[in-house]
Structure formats: structure tokens, C-alpha cells
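Ligand-bound model needed. 6-O-phosphono-beta-D-glucopyranose.
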Amino acid sequence: MSDEHRPNPLREGLSTKAVPQPCAIVIFGATGDLTHRKLVPALYNIAADGELPPAVAVIGFARRPKTDEEFRAEMEEATRKFSRQTVRDEIWDGFAKSLFYHQSEFGDEAGYKTLADRLEKLDQESGTRGNRLFYFAASPDKFETIINNLKSAGLNKTSEGAWARVILEKPFGSDLASARHLNRVVQASFTEDQTYRIDHFLGKETAQNILVLRFANAIFEPLWNTRYIDHVQITAAETLGVENRAGYYETAGALRDMVQNHLLQLLCLVGMEAPTDLSANSIRDEKVKVVRSLRRFEEDEVGSRVVRAQYTAGAIAGKPVVAYREEQGVDPKSQTETYVALRLLVDNWRWSDVPIYVRVGKRLPKSGTEISVHFKKAPQVLFNRGSQVIEQNVLVIRIQPDEGISLRMQAKVPGTSFRTEPVKMDFHYGTSFGKASPEAYERLLLDAMAGDATLFARRDEVEQAWAFIDTIEEAWAAKEDAPKLCTYPAGSWGPEEADELLARDGRSWRRL
Ligand code: BG6
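Prediction:
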């Protein structure tokens, strides 16, 4: 029986949440950005909230020579800068004692043998019980080498009663073929149950709340289908540009960077059927059906259904910013898209003929991720006849910032006539619950320590998503008649062509 289906009789009736267990967490790529900005600050916050298991050792594995002390000092500086909560000295001091540094090239087999020895020693000294979590925060082209070396050092196996798991950062491949290859490589050493593919959007509180909204409230589900929903919009807007990630972004572009993973995951949560239970596989079974039902584009359709664009020079919040092609490390003739808008259809009974418009872009005027569900119009036979139109009801799920949900509806304007206007019912996480949500990485690290893979992508989800994305990438890469790369000034809401994509259907993008 797999980890996730094994009931624990002692916990039955007590809690439905799996418990994080003592373990050693080895971070490959310990000197990189992700470790500094996200991973170690997340672990510190878990410790500060008192949720870290009693014995945890964090071992940074990287190339540069460094002592444990130097690593601790570096991590302290990063955590003070990036932590969600202000760092408290007394908590940091205790936490820092569990940080260690292991110097080795990723390709050096001997480095893994010494790692194995070190982990065994830590088990004795710190009580990590032989449990190991290997976090792949290194560049993806190193994944295969690291996996193979872990196996050669016997680190994919554990002692009786212990576990070993791998967490793999995105991008998981760059197309279907490479994702399949990586899956084969991983699974030659670790089983699917041991494999945790990160999609940090799934760790966001508001993304998880989509399931609660849909399946813990009786009022939405009966309306959640083609009879009542006119269309859905999913937007992920960022004011940031490519920052210092040109090397990666030039090979990815917005479609691979954001749509293949994060936005398709959100679409799955909005579109899926109710799972039979909350186990990882039940939820993922339903999600993967949505991706499988996405209507594939014919090559000659891509141009009219998908808009790709790149930002030119402009201004964000009044400050001038350079064009993408002038960013450091970017090819001056780059064809990489920093914006994509798509018109998608999900071919199943629930969603038949309901367009799902997805857009994502860098250097837009505002940062925000949201899903808006636009319901069909009420017949305009009673109110506002012949005058102003009655606007549709819109349910907005704000993933970030200002996390919450709002419902737009019509209300009577006070006065002697029966004129109506749209008003908003609003739920804000901050004010309703009075506490800040944990960062996505906090939740995901805790889940991995607990052996709960619900919020991680399964092999078939990732491969199906790539199969869909590949049809678009292939059309874009065509030598002849490839759909054009449009442009938009930084600080604008994207290219005109994206507005036309909706205007052709008589619709427009919601203003964030
Ligand atoms: C990452 C992308 O996965 O998600 C980035 O690689 C993007 O390009 C980021 O900026 C957005 O995540 P968040 O949590 O900041 O919205």
C-alpha cells in the first residue's frame, strides 16, 4: 500500500492532517537564489510557528567551499531579508544549529558517499531517524547527475521504517519529451510515491481554498457549469520584468514559465469534478482529467487562439523601464514571449462551449493573480429596459495579493425608480481570519515532511500539460507562417491583439 493510502489507526478520528516527521533535508543548490529567498526563510518560519518536527537537520549541498558557520551566517542574512515574520534572535539561534554545509561538485560521486556518512552521523546525533528529503533547487540540467549519484551512494534506499523523498523544482522539463525523460530518470531511482514535483502555486492558501469554495458550499456547485457560466478568466499579472533570470527565461518564455504549470493547475482546480476523498491521488485523478479534456489546437488555429507578445520600453509606476530585449543577458533579437493570452476550451459535459481565457505577463501595470467566473446575464426584461445593461454576476477569486473572494451582483439604486447597479460582496482573508497566511513554500515543505503529496504535481499531470503546451510551442517554432510575436509597452495591459481575442467573442478582460 502506498504512503498516502495507509491509514494510521492512532490518528483516526483525531486529525485528517498528516504529521511532519523528523528528517534531514538536503538542499542541492544551497548557494542559489531559491534557497536564500524562499527555502531557508520558509524553514525558519515553520520553526518560529513551532511546527518544525522535533529533529530536523538542513544540509546545504553546493560547489563552493564554505564552513557550517559561514553557511549559517549567509542564511541568517538572507532570512532577515526575506522572511515573512521578523526574525527573533532566540528562535534563529536554535534553528541555526540545525544548519550544515556539505561541499561537493554535483558530478562528484565521492561527495555523495561522504554525504551518506554525514547523514548517518546526524541520525545518531540529531535524531533524524534515517528520514531524508532531497530538495533539488539546482539548475534542472543537473537533476539527472544528482539523481544518479544519489542512487550510486545508496541514498535512494533507507533503513527499515525510514523514508527518502525527492522534491523537484520547476521547470520539470521543457517539453513533453524532456519531461518524460526526466520522469524516467527519477523513477529509475525513486518511486512515484517518493517524488514531489513542486508547483508553488498549489501551496498558496487561496489556491487551496478553491476546493473549499466549490465543494464546502452548496450554492456554487449547481451553477458551476455551461448552463450558468458564460466564461472564465484567469490572470497572472506581474509588474516585475525578467530580473536577473534572463539565462533561464530566454529558454522558457511565459508559456513554459507560467502557463504549463501554475495557470493550468489553477484551471484544473476551477474545472475539476469533486474528488471522492481528499487523498492526493483522488484529487490528482480529477485534475488530470481536466488537462486531458483541454481541446488541442490545430497548428493553423494557434495564431487565432493564442497571443504571444514581448514588452518594449515603458514605465511602471511612473519609473521608466527598458525593453525586454535590452535587459541584461537577453538576446537583442530575442523572440521570447513575456506575455501570453489564450482562449481555451475544456471538452467535457460540464464545460462544453465555455471559453476559459488565460493571460499572463511581465511588466504589466499591476501585480495580481485572480480567477473570475462570469455568469450568464439575467434576462433584461424587468429592470433597466432600454437603458444601461444589467451586468453579469462575477465571482472573483483573488489568489494574491489581498487574498479573498468577491461576488458582483445587481442592487437597486436608492431612489424612486427601479434602476440597478452592480455592487460587490467581499471576503478578505486578512480581516476575516486576522492572521497572515503562511508562504506557499512553508506549506509545501511541511507536506513533504509529512508524506502528503496532494499539493504536488503527479507524473501524468505534468506530462499531459506538456503535451498540450507542445502543440503551441511547435506552431510558434514553425519556419513558415508562425504566428507573430506582438509587442506591448511595459506598464500597459498587454498587446491590442489580446483584447481582440476576447472582443471577437463580444467580451473583454476584467480590470484588475
Ligand atoms: C515562478 C516563475 O514560477 O513564479 C516566475 O518562474 C514568476 O517567473 C513566479 O515570477 C510568480 O510567482 P509568485 O508566487 O511570485 O506569484
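The mean pLDDT is 93.
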